[in-house]
Amino acid sequence: MDIPLLLYLAPLCLLFEVWQLVIAERHIGIKQIERGVDPRDKGPGELLSFLWGSGIVLYWVWMILMLVPKTGRIQIVCMLIVSLAGYSLRRNSGLKWILVILTVEGAVRIGMIVSLLGSTWRSL
Question: pLDDT per residue over 76-94, tens digit each?
């Protein structure tokens, strides 16, 4: 089986997802909610915002490009659907539910990346 070159970036995407969950918990976490702090008033610093935004853009480009090879197309479509659904739910949710939605969304995407890597490994 010929492995697409883009699939080699999957571990980096997995690390990005874990990092994204940690950053989300830090800035929108339970401690922030208990204190009554609105993270939109005092967000992350400029460098972190740039890295986070750039990572999201690169992650979306990777997902869209991964639709071309047949390997893992089902997982990628699921990741895209979960991302779009999560975005629409977060846009219409209160602050307390945003962390829950981000966590579930990230967990599903992490599961899909692990499934993608596992199915590729088994097909070798």
Answer: 999 999 999 999 998 988 8
Residues contacting 72, CB < 8 A, separation 6+: 7, 66, 116, 119, 120
pTM: 0.85
Q: Which domain holds residue 103?
A: 5-123
Residue 67 in 3-state DSSP? coil
Query: For the chain, what is the domain count?
Result: 1
Asked if residues 28 and 120 have their Cβ atoms less than 8 Å apart, the reply is: no
CA dist list (Å): 103 to 79, 86, 92, 97, 122: 14, 10, 16, 10, 28
